[in-house]
């Protein structure tokens, strides 16, 4: 058993052997006793493929002991076999489980790079801890025939800012592997390699979208006053994919020319998805007329375009357009009204907005009513009396949203309403009631939920209750 003390951070790391036994847990407890000033204990299971059931009790004992000492306990590098035992024993939620790459040799980390779920984290770790040992490992990656390892090496170089590798990175622009080319393009952009820009332009037309998007991002990083003009030509292409890349590149370049070209193109672009992209792209420019352009797009026929326009208005915090947006909340087109209400709920925090939405509530379609209830919760002005009436509405979605919005403005009424809603005919409403009680944690709420679980018939509501109070 290996033991390492980080005196500065007051962290004790204990690495268990492959043939872990009861004596190892006893030794771990003795080690904890030796260092009374520690704040955290890390138990490293990197070499432990499986835990026998008799050892689970020992692990729980360590957990209880650490709690009694006010010491944080963390399990690191838990293998699948150990994790399954903890899951079967319903103990996963009782332990903090993390990955600690410091326990792995460079050679062992190379295998973890091949795991898609770990690749990004391993790259970040090696880049942050780059030294001669990792440099030797990357040299092996560069001459391998595995595109994942080559790509990882390039990204590690980029994230660790090792500019001495720049010529080698350039050479990989000619790689037959798209992921390798993409990573090379990105890193050359991070390095500010203007000498490669002309070659990178060629990749805007690449058949692999990831490569083309990387080229757009890098050209934006390397851009000067001529690049917007050059990329504008791609907007007139008959290839929708190429127009998409051009829009992305211009939004990233973000100069006056780019803005002008995107606004002009909005007038003629007919593809729905590209108009959605244009709504987002134009919103990245700090121009006073952007809000008006997006307001106009709220009235387009496409639901996707309307949603993009509403989201963009929210993103740019167009609070100066609240009055104009409010004019659309009772539009005869249900979806224009719906997205207008969504925008109001995010942009306005004034009492007048709540009052206006409450006033038009009876006049609008059910979908818009639900959006109004949600918006009232976001605005935050206390209209809980109005919402309380809606808890009797025949529509379960309205009752659910009303309950949720009350919880955001009136704690006492929310607790009362949630307790009553535990008997609602809809499991969706009952589930929301349980969530609210869990969040607000009124006195005795766990006992209330335990009693509720005895008569609850819906599986999802029961599981939610048990996750809070434990199995009965």
Automatic annotation (TrEMBL):
Residues 1-125 form the STAS domain. Pfam families: HEAT_2, STAS. SUPFAM superfamilies: ARM repeat, SpoIIaa-like. The keyword Lyase applies. One of its GO terms (molecular function) is oxidoreductase activity. Catalyzes the hydroxylation of the N(6)-(4-aminobutyl)-L-lysine intermediate produced by deoxyhypusine synthase/DHPS on a critical lysine of the eukaryotic translation initiation factor 5A/eIF-5A. This is the second step of the post-translational modification of that lysine into an unusual amino acid residue named hypusine. Hypusination is unique to mature eIF-5A factor and is essential for its function. This is PBS lyase HEAT domain protein repeat-containing protein. It comes from Calditerrivibrio nitroreducens (strain DSM 19672 / NBRC 101217 / Yu37-1).
